[in-house]
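User: Predict the complex.
Assistant: Input components as received:
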Amino acid sequence: MSKLFYPKDYKFKDPKIRNQKELQDLYDRFANDFEGTWDQFAKEKISWLKPYDKVLDDSNKPFYRWFTNGKLNVAHQCVDRHLEENKNKVAIIFEGDDGKSDVITYRKLGQKVNRTANLLTNEFKIQKGDRVIIYMPMIPEAIYMMLACAKIGAIHSIVFGGFSAEALRDRISSAAAKLVVTADGAFRKGKSYMLKPIVDKALEIGCECVKKVCVVKRNFEEIVIGDKDVIYNDLIDLQSPKANSPLHDSEDPLFLLYTSGSTGKPKGIQHSMGGYMLWAHLTMEWVFDLKPTDTYWCTADIGWITGHTYAVYGPLSVGATTVIFEGVPTYPDAGRVWKMVEEYSINQLYTAPTLIRTLRQHGPTEPEKYDLTSLRVLGTVGEPIDEETWLWYYNEVGSGNCSVVDTWWQTETGGHMISPLPAATPMVPGSATKHLPGIWAEILDENGKMVTKVGEKGLLCITRPWPSMARNIWGDTDRFVESYFNKNDFAGNMIYFTGDGAFYDEYHNIVITGRVDDVINVSGHRLGTAEIEDSVNKHFYVGECAVVGKPDKIKGEAVFAFIRLTEPCDEKLILKEINIILKREIGSIALVDSLLVVDNLPKTRSGKIMRRILRDIAKKEEVKGDLSTIEDPSVVAYIQEKFKEKY
Ligand code: PRX
């Protein structure tokens, strides 16, 4: 049996959920009165500007509506409402790549957000419902922009700064955005890099919808200024620091965030204002034990969902201090993160297993050199954490005194779904433990029947709606229903299918086994095999290819390609050239790590590549599942043999 790690009481002063009994009581409250319990939390945590008249409208499943006709303003919730009592409290500590920091109080944040909101309205003529693309480094202006959009009801869609011009173009066009906000560039590892030329390129190859580009000057390098470009720094101080908080509907979209699916182009996941904010706020309090007096650091970039919910909206809604970092956690050395924890006396640290593995590899004893006693909760997200890494985090970073919360969730869920609660849940290394109160997570078999036996694998599903669930895929309602709600729909319930496999351990904890679809998880970043394959297939000598995830010691998974060539070529050269295409079409995060050239790929009789077979081969596992539909069974042994020879 795996060892249980019990929370250390003395670290927690008055946590929201104090112990297992209180946790059980909360489960019971939700079970006995689902809507009434949500109602109570919604009233307690959200400053409604006009009360809602219904907690949950499920008359048009799976298009659930939460807190119907309630009005709020997310910028008011995250900033303005804190001003009366806490105006000079620090909202954001920003640390630049160069180590210089800037402290932004709630008052200053409020003024910046208002000025930015006025800029959006006056200069860029942005109105409620318009889409604004944010393609920015991790600097405070990116957060002002998010909150300014929220304030006026514009829908932001942040594109991670590592995506290429073509990937940016696709997202801008799909969202039909009127405005792109970017920076001239920023700093990484002591060097300046550029972003604006990537926006220029994206606009050159498409995006007629874009009327203006707003450029924040950060590195002050020379840029080409075109007709559409407006410099933020020239205009921002001319705007009034005052702005109204218009009333927005609970169901109005707050943002779109593009994420990879198993097929086709990335999906613009659409989140709401009311339900999303409630769950962001509640999970900050429950999972991180976040208090308004805490200083908290989530290392995720705002280009990912973690950066949205847990670097910006969640911590600011609670009224805490959130740390925003421009640089790279291993620069100038592997002590950077620990130095920052000491310097800002950080109470909760939230990061990805890949970063923990990297920091450990570069400096296993580095945490000892710093005073990390301020830490109370250590979070992980985005990918499974192996036991060894978990134990290092727990023992070396937390000195065995902090709770480790392995949080399972997705872009689509908006916030945490499965996680230990730091003062209440006994932890098991490598397990996100149990679903949170208010969340119904079940493991179902292929036929929609509940899996109950320890160790039996099934599909992780969410069987009841929750407030922060995705509301739609932008512009593709059919795909929304098809991707998430068409499986395991038994007993008349609409069941949300997560795309992950899972099983129960001996404590009835949920252990996530990873994606069961064609999605790869590299360093906690989601990549669709179809997108990568589309690009790889563009190489002149690639006849066909299949891409899968191959286990990697640091990144969790690395991209591995099985390729059939039309002409014999040098493998190293092919890899190099394929990666040039991938860098151009998607970005550096999607590069192929290694490949195997084969004469044939396993296919069904109808010609579909059987990627699951290749997944098993890349994992060096026995090839499982039904092979009766395979066109030529001898291909499996042939590829296995070739793979063994090389890897
Ligand atoms: O496979 C799961 C994995 O990341 C996927 C969601 O990716 P994304 O939407 O990019 O969101 C990442 C940040 C929330 C999931 O389907 N995943 C996420 N958290 C965990 C995880 N796998 C194992 N353990 C986790 N804690």
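Residues 259, 305-306, 381-384, 406-411, 432, 498-500, 512, 514-515, 521, 526 surround adenosine-5'-monophosphate-propyl ester (CB under 6 Å).
Let me know if you want any component modeled separately.
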